From TrEMBL:
Residues 436-446 have a biased composition (Basic and acidic residues). InterPro entries: EmrE-like, SLC35_F1/F2/F6, SLC35F_Transporter. GO terms for molecular function: transmembrane transporter activity. Belongs to the SLC35F solute transporter family. GO terms for cellular component: membrane. Keywords: Membrane, Transmembrane, Transmembrane helix, Transport. This is Transmembrane transporter. It is a multi-pass membrane protein. The chain crosses the membrane at residues 47-68, 80-96, 173-192, 198-217, 238-258, 278-298, 310-330, 371-393, 405-424. It is found in: Membrane. It comes from Skeletonema marinoi. Pfam families: SLC35F. Residues 116-135, 426-472 are annotated as: Disordered. It comes from the Eukaryota.
Length: 472
């Protein structure tokens, strides 16, 4: 009996049609994902620009440290940390005190406005203002470079400028005999400072025992570290687009360092045990960097803000670093600041490189805190991957290094990974919607002057309040 092959042909055509539709559906999904990522990246261009600025600053600091280590044969990581943390502690202290004064002034102005509305111009209860119209603005005084969040303003909550009463105020703690008022317990900041200082210390020490290539690749482990700690501590969820985007960025930095695998690191004399120790230092330092970014994001967004974080992290970081100097780096400090005749670098060059490194390191810490206020820890580490590429550009200028195809491929791969990461909704949206980051605002001088005029107007109304109250 002969069977008709027509049904089989129809099945073949149907299967080929299904395959074509499947391929078309996949291509449409990939295209729409990339387009969404480009749209989101373009809409947050200020945040992306801030992240790349931080990466560029970090690259300058790293280049100065590399010259100190390779050409001047000086390595004093705890000393670098001490001066860096001292700078940000001093800056943070002045900024925090200024913020406290402005917050108190805003509270007084708003209390006078509310009292004037309740008393009225004749002192007999609520009434209308005859000559002036009062508008209570619950937003606090802002700087020209400020951060805008979607549902809440942490400064407003901290200063108590909300309409729900004092019960919604975040609890404050006196610090240094009441000289400062902080919004989280001091040992939280001490722990974060310990994590960050040890992370940088371990990475610096790793350069002594293992290859530069391995250290640069290990730095990328801060990305999965930040994702894991964010998931465990902040209970945020990551979509497959976030995971694939992060993996592509890591592949980009691996691709960049693969081009340097044939270069000699000058570490042939190191024993295998020392290599393993250096590798462990690099991996542990990268993991601690991811943890530090997550903890810093929590403290910056939910508690004290950027100024308080700079002051507290700088203070405790300096104290921790000075202890490490006393125990481990006395000889290194002599090599850095001493007049060593016959040294590869003279005193003036070492000081220029040293102050360049600590200045840009301090600027990097400030920039990272500002970025964490508008975004999140995983994206910050994705942004910082390009710092290694910027460092390669410095080598092009300094020693005439010729860039290979690995560099351009790595840069394109990292950019594509960031776009893919941005294609999904922000991980901050999966948790508390009140912490959804939006964008950065730039305020003009005219807006600042109008705010000052409004403040003076409020002060005049406060004088009217006291006058009417006395007449009543």
């Amino acid at each position: 009996m002969v069977h008709c092959p027509c049904p089989r042909r129809r099945n073949v055509r149907r299967s080929s049609g299904d395959s074509a539709s499947l391929v078309q559906s996949i291509s449409q999904t990939v295209t729409s994902t990339i387009v969404d990522g480009l749209v989101h990246t373009a809409s947050h261009w200020r945040v992306i620009l801030l992240g790349q600025g931080v990466a560029l600053v970090l690259a300058v600091a790293g280049a100065a440290n590399e010259i100190l280590s390779m050409e001047c044969t000086v390595s004093a990581p705890s000393t670098y940390n001490f001066f860096t943390y001292s700078i940000i502690a001093i800056f943070g202290a002045f900024a925090l005190k200024r913020e406290e004064k402005l917050s108190k002034a805003d509270e007084i102005n708003i209390e006078e406005q509310e009292r004037f509305q309740s008393i009225g111009p004749s002192g007999q209860g609520d009434g209308d203002v005859e000559d002036d119209e009062i508008t209570i603005d619950s937003e606090p005084r802002q700087t020209r470079f400020s951060i805008r969040r979607s549902q809440r303003d942490t400064t407003t909550i901290r200063s108590g400028n909300n309409s729900t009463g004092s019960k919604d105020k975040i609890r404050t703690y006196p610090f240094l005999c009441g000289l400062f008022t902080i919004h989280a317990k001091w040992y939280y900041y001490a722990f974060v400072a310990l994590v960050e200082s040890q992370a940088y210390y371990l990475i610096f020490v790793a350069f002594r025992y293992t290859s530069f290539t391995f250290v640069y690749v290990s730095d990328a482990l801060a990305i999965p570290s930040a994702m894991i700690f964010t998931k465990l501590i902040m209970k945020r969820g990551y979509l497959w687009m976030h995971l694939i985007g992060g993996a592509i960025c890591v592949a980009g930095i691996v691709m960049n360092t693969a081009g340097d695998m044939t270069l000699q690191d000058g570490l042939e004399h190191a024993a295998s045990f020392e290599h393993i120790r250096g590798d462990l230092y690099a991996v542990l330092g990268a993991v601690l960097l991811g943890l530090d970014d997550v903890l810093s994001e929590i403290l910056v967004t939910n508690f004290g803000g950027v100024r308080e974080m700079l002051f507290m992290k700088g203070l405790f970081g300096a104290l921790i670093s000075i202890l490490q100097i006393c125990f481990f780096e006395i000889d290194n400090v002599r090599d850095l600041f001493g007049s060593n005749y016959g040294a590869p670098c003279d005193m003036s060059r070492r000081m220029v490189l040293f102050f360049t490194h600590i200045a840009f390191r301090a600027l990097d810490v400030w920039g990272e805190m500002q970025f964490l206020l508008v975004s999140e820890a995983a994206l910050l580490n994705l942004m910082l991957l390009t710092s290694d590429l910027y460092a390669a550009l410095f080598d092009v200028i300094r020693v005439g290094l010729h860039l290979t195809g690995y560099f351009y491929a790595a840069f394109g791969t990292i950019c594509f990974g960031i776009v893919l990461y941005e294609a999904g909704p922000s991980p901050t949206e999966s948790g508390n919607s009140e912490t959804t980051p939006k964008d950065i605002e730039f305020h003009s001088r005219e807006e600042d002057e109008s705010f000052v005029a409004d403040t003076e107007h409020t002060s005049n109304l406060g004088n009217k309040i006291r006058t009417h109250g006395e007449l009543a």
